[in-house]
Amino acid sequence: xxxxxxxxxxxxxxxxxxxxxxxxxxxxxxxxxxxxxxxxxxxxxxxxxxxxxxxxxxxxxxxxxxxxxxxxxxxxxxxxxxxxxxxxxxxxxxxxxxxxxxxxxxxxxxxxxxxxxxxxxxxxxxxxxxxxxxxxxxxxxxxxxxxxxxxxxxxxxxxxxxxxxxxxxxxxxxxxxxxxxxxxxxxxxxxxxxxxxxxxxxxxxxxxxxxxxxxxxxxxxxxxxxxxxxxxxxxxxxxxxxxxxxxxxxxxxxxxxxxxxxxxxxxxxxxxxxxxxxxxxxxxxxxxxxxxxxxxxxxxxxxxxxxxxxxxxxxxxxxxxxxx
Length: 324
Ligand code: ASP
Known about the structure:
By secondary structure, the protein is an alpha+beta fold. It has helices spanning 23-42, 48-60, 105-115, 123-133, 140-143, 146-160, 173-179, 244-249, 252-263, 266-277; strands at 3-11, 81-87, 92-99, 120-122, 192-197, 203-209, 230-232, 236-242, 284-290, 295-296, 303-310, 313-317. It has one domain: Glutamine Phosphoribosylpyrophosphate, subunit 1, domain 1. The chain is built from ten helices and twelve strands. Strand 2 and strand 3 form a beta hairpin. Aspartic acid (ASP) binds next to strand 8.
């Protein structure tokens, strides 16, 4: 038995409004990831660590998600990306912060994990380490898409408008979505993540993001922080998405593990984590899988791109219901 669960970010307030013109592309990508990686995981060809790495690499390659190519653009007009990965068996972990030149930040995080020390590298040192280890080097122009440039232009414009507050200093894609309405406001929420249980009963988790549109230079979200955006031990693997600051302040991913360890109740524990981040402005969601083969994918936003492979059964969804 093997399970792979993925997400492509959560966002939006209010009721589900149905799919956007870009959503079929995201659905196809998620299905492809689950089919390709799920099969290899199920057959035992790859373990949970490689499965979450490959799944996230494929999501990073989809420009409609906010990771790798198609990452959102920060305050200074540049793209900086965060990623982390953790193996449950021995709690080995790797993380990169604010990388600017890597096609697959998650692979760099994986290489850090494999090397064993240190756990986190930032900025140019993380870029250099990734490139020397074999991660493909790409330019900022390659990472930037028209969609993200359009969203950034709107964010910039909104800052020039009277009434803009400090809270508008940086925004998730879905915040832009609620505020403006043009072709560029399609949402594209899209931090990506994966958790997996392999046939040996081992677990791993991985998360990758471009962060938030208009984020200040040097900002670090929850995604590269072990215990906040990503966690795996030998009983549970977790990947989070949402307003990172709230997930950091509640140690969200680790807090889910702690609650699950003491109660044994996955769904309740996951809901509690989202209840804890909400008062801190932490709209978002998470995915988790346990060594007993249970999975959960809660979110308290309008939508969360998500899906799973469970014993050859594939399901994907965006709004409250899964796709037929
Ligand atoms: N958690 C990410 C961050 O704060 C954003 C997201 O999940 O959409 O950087």
